[in-house]
Fold this protein.
Amino acid sequence: MQIGHVHLKVADLDRAIAFYRDVLGLNVAADGREHGFDAAVFLAAGDYHHHIGLNSFDSAGGEPPLPEHTWLYHVAFVYPDRDRLADATRRVLAHGYPIDHGTDHGATVSVYLADRPPRSRR
C-alpha cells in the first residue's frame, strides 16, 4: 500500500494554492474552477494525478480548529536532497511564513511549519 493523496479543507483557496504551488513547489495538476467545480484544486509533485487536493466546499472563511480538537497532525514533503530542502526553506521564509523548528533525525532532516497565514511583508 501507499498513500495516494491528502485532501484538505481550507478557509482561503487562493492562499492555499499560492502556498503549495509558489512556496513548496507543487504543480497545479487540475483546477476545478476551470471546469465549473468552483472550490477545488489539485496539486502534484511531478506527473502524478495529485498529491494534495484543496477544497473550500464548506470551509471558505472558516476558523482553524482549536489546539485541543482533533485534526491532521502533520504531513511530510520529502525533497530529493538537503539542497532542495534548503531552497524550499528559503522560499518559505521569503514568502513570510514562519519556521516553527527544524530537526535532524539522522536519516532525514525536517523543517516544521505551523498552519497559519504568512506575516505581512512590508
